[in-house]
Amino acid sequence: MRYRRPAALLAVALAGALTLAGCGDGGKDGADGKAGGSGTRTVTDANGEKVKVPAAPQKVVTLSEPTLDAALALGTRPIGATSGRGQSGVSGYLAPKAGSAEIVANTAEPDLDKLAALRPDLILLDETVGAKRVQDKLRRIAPTVLTAKLNAPWRDAFTATADALGRKADGAKWLTSFDSRLKTVKDGLGPNAGAVTSVIRWQNGAPSIVGKGKGHVGDTLAALGLKRPQGQQGESSGHSEPVSLERLDTIDGDWLFIGALGDRAAGDKALEEATAVPNFTKLKAVEKHHVVVIDGSAWNSSGGPLAAQAVLTDVEKALTKKS
């Protein structure tokens, strides 16, 4: 799906947004229920550019999964957001917290008219989405911060988003709590300590490798001391890497986490399809009943603190209770 609107309509919307930006702080509650503040502060974006942002932004629009994830983790509910990868609304794992955030973009591009009509006071995005190509137009609507480059560590992206929202200290506290839980889960792995852990998405009759590198999946598994199959080590060449049915042995491991682009129910369907493939049932993880269906909307997302939290929860449930 591609968003296209008449240029005249966009001009009207931009004019309205710019008028609002010049009117100052109204002091009203924002979408996250916090009282509005006054003044501005300056942050440095991922390109090294200085951006003047509201000291206490109240009408935030997030144009990527990581920035939406991070904002929600910090208690900020954006008024506008992007749809999840392969989904019509926000990523399923974020939907309960996102509330009524209006969809104003997909991963390919934003709908500038819808976005401008919301009259945001801050726009957040990163290089995981196509909106990075129209930052000049976004800046005409509201202060715009590019929080992270493509393949940046999720923790760095989270910290940058927290800084843009004026909540860097809250972000640090969140990470401290997460790391404490990481240690608890790692200590409870028992016989699964150091287990070889494979992560795949099953789609269109075949698997794809996901979660390589320093994203929320790879980073969390590495922090737990879990190993990856040889083909799942190093950086990813894209969001996912297809695997032919003739090479299913390369996705095997002590444990196999499988999902789809959608929720856990979609993952159940994906596993059903996979088990119909003869070689899949011969995998060591399958024979040992070490296959775990995951919420693909979290594991296969572009990442963020809440996605990392979902990965940690699934690993804890599976590997700390079974041998």
UniProtKB/TrEMBL annotation:
Keyword Signal (UniProt): yes
CDD domains, alphabetized: FhuD
Domain Fe/B12 periplasmic-binding: 59-323
Location(s) in or outside the cell: Cell envelope
Signal peptide bounds: 1-21
A Pfam family it matches: Peripla_BP_2
SUPFAM superfamilies: Helical backbone' metal receptor
Broad class of the protein's primary localization: other
Keyword match Lipoprotein: yes
Domain of life: Bacteria
InterPro entries, per database record: ABC_transptr_periplasmic_BD (IPR002491), Bact_iron-sidero_bind (IPR051313)
Keywords: Lipoprotein, Signal, Transport
Disordered, as annotated region: 28-47
PANTHER family with a match to the protein in the record: IRON III DICITRATE-BINDING PERIPLASMIC PROTEIN, IRON(3+)-HYDROXAMATE-BINDING PROTEIN FHUD
Family: Belongs to the bacterial solute-binding protein 8 family.
Protein name: Siderophore-binding lipoprotein YfiY
Originating species: Streptomyces rimosus subsp. rimosus
Gene name as annotated: yfiY1
